[in-house]
Amino acid sequence: MSYGEKIISYLEENNRGQSEFLQASRSFIRSIEPVLNAHPEYQNAALLERLVEPERLYVFRVPWVDDRGKVRVNRGYRIQFNSAIGPYKGGLRFHPSVNLSVVKFLAFEQIFKNSLTSLPIGAGKGGCNFNPKGKSDNEIMHFCQSFMTSLYRVIGEDTDVPAGDVGVGSKEIGYLFGQYKRITNKYVGVLTGKGLSYGGSLARTEATGYGLIYFVQALLESMDSSLHGKNVVISGSGNVAIYAVEKAFEMGAKVLTVSDSSGFVYDKDGIDIEILKEIKEKKRDRIYEYVNHKKTAEYFPGQRPWNIPCDVALPCATQNEILIDDAKELCKNGCILVAEGANMPTTPEAIKYFQNNKIIFGPAKAANAGGVSVSALEMSQNSQRMSKSFVQVDKLLENIMENIYYNIADAAEEYNDKGNLVLGANAAGFLKVADAMMAQGVV
Ligand code: NDP
Fold it and tell me: How many whole angstroms from 440 Cα to the centroid of ligand 1?
């Protein structure tokens, strides 16, 4: 049995029921087999055994009182997975589906994503099984205050810097930051994704969606092509999807779809970004509202958008949203490129299908690294007590995403698998962390 397979057996034995974490760690370990074969010293140092075990893991009670005076209790998590190359960094997710497995898979992926950004950030992730949907502002504030009352003990501007993720936007970050400051009496950059009036970075809101499109553009340019004139299918209508739509449009592409967990909208004339922002950012409404604003649009309840013919598909909603049948449909309809805006939106079978059918596949840890990159830039602006302009941050983001693409493409070639960006991203992300871990001894 190979070193990698031994670790997978160990993981399966010791993490029963953690299906998302096992899916992510198994796929990662199998893909870096050629790297492990080239570095026997990693086995002697039990490097993988250490890498798959979080450095620290906090699970805590989050009690709060709703508007009717009823006491509610949720379960909070913070996983400090790896600090080899910098302070723990990664978002907080508030969603009913949050559990240990989901948070661990996200934190594990974050290790390599953060490494790929070339910035000095380690990996963490956290969240809670709290559902912000349908809650009043007052309830959300009280919940966030209770969450931070536990979390503040383990985070800090030089140890662990959380950010937003699904269900945690600027409003929640504001409440969390306010409570941290109140408890600790410190005004520091302990969270990113903050509002501009209290230490946030320009272009953070746009960063993941824009970054995804910069990555896709760099990839297409390396093939002497571009997004101009391409038909693009996007899922989701949250933070990542909205800004991917905006930047794709700016680059001359036509975005045909957006979605939410109830269904998808198809607009044959291209999604109108102003209408999308009005519905999702201002009114915080459901995506089916779009068809009431645009005659060329149709709504498909209960469906995902992968049967709409396109050149480029960008899943930007959630994990495991492209299944094998969706992959076949995309391939049949002429799609040439899939890049992940969401974390782990494509199942391992679907990824295999894309690779076997010569569809270019850009994995999340590379393609959606723009958000955490600008978060790291927010940290450095906070430390310096200064702020950069939108244009400066956006330019840095574009450079980071181009570098990520070229680094992972080179890494794939180095391991004799040109075009395999999954291998390239995992290898390049892993090697930097592995090098730092080896240098720091058995810790
Ligand atoms: P948001 O909460 O802003 O939006 C999520 C979108 O996905 C919503 O449209 C939501 O619809 C939809 N969605 C959620 N669950 C499902 C589901 N089960 N089926 C179909 N649609 C669903 O989140 P973000 O845009 O911030 O994040 C999206 C993805 O990108 C996540 O995987 C996140 O981890 C990843 N990501 C985000 C980053 C960021 O900076 N924001 C950075 C890197 C990765 P509904 O309203 O119906 O729930």
Answer: 36
